[in-house]
Amino acid sequence: MIEPHEGGRWYTRHQDGSETSTGQVIAWEPPHRLVLTWQISAAWRYDPSLVTTIEVSFMAEAPDRTRVRLEHRDLERFGPDAPRMRETFETPGAWSATLSAYAAACGGDRL
């Protein structure tokens, strides 16, 4: 879940009601862009001292078509784990799966 405002939380709410932080919203500029922090370590746990940046931009291409671009920056902040994390984020099913789910939720049929 993403709270729709600068300073908002980005988190997951689990079936048992517990929540896990992912990061926060640092720019909320609909309909053009969203910038978030990613604060999940290479061990896949929330780490408030780790801050990487995700920018999602939306560009209208036609009345029924929007290009969505996602850039995950600052991966060098993972230190020695940076190459492995970059590879993880670039594999099929990583961000592409997230964007596909977003497109489906919006009624789109493809990325």
Walk me through the structure.
This protein is an alpha+beta fold. The protein has a domain at 9-81: START domain (Alpha-D-Glucose-1,6-Bisphosphate, Chain A, domain 4, 2-Layer Sandwich). It is 18% helix and 38% strand. Strands 1-2-3-4-5 form a 5-stranded antiparallel beta sheet, with no helix packed on it. A hairpin with a 5-residue loop joins strand 1 and strand 2 (19-29).
Q: Which helices and strands occur, and which strands form pairs?
A:
Blueprint: E1 9-13, E2 19-29, E3 33-38, E4 52-62, E5 65-73, H1 82-90, H2 95-105
Summarize the structure.
By secondary structure, the protein is α+β, with helices and mostly antiparallel strands.
Tell me, rounded to a whole number, the average pLDDT: 91
Radius of gyration: 15 Å
Provide the structure class: alpha+beta
Categorize the overall geometry: globular
Proportion of helical residues: 10-25%
Distance between the termini: 21 Å
Query: How many individual β-strands?
Result: 5
* CATH-level-4 superfamily name of the domain at 9-81: START domain
Portion of residues in beta strands equals 35-45%
**Biggest sheet architecture:** 5 strands, antiparallel
CATH fold type of the domain at 9-81? Alpha-D-Glucose-1,6-Bisphosphate, Chain A, domain 4
CATH class of the domain at 9-81: Alpha Beta
Enumerate the spans where pLDDT stays under 50 for 5 or more consecutive residues: none
Specify the number of helices: 2
CATH architecture label name of the domain at 9-81: 2-Layer Sandwich
Please trace the helix and strand order, writing H or E for each element. EEEEEHH
Please state how the strands of the largest beta sheet are arranged side by side: 1-2-3-4-5
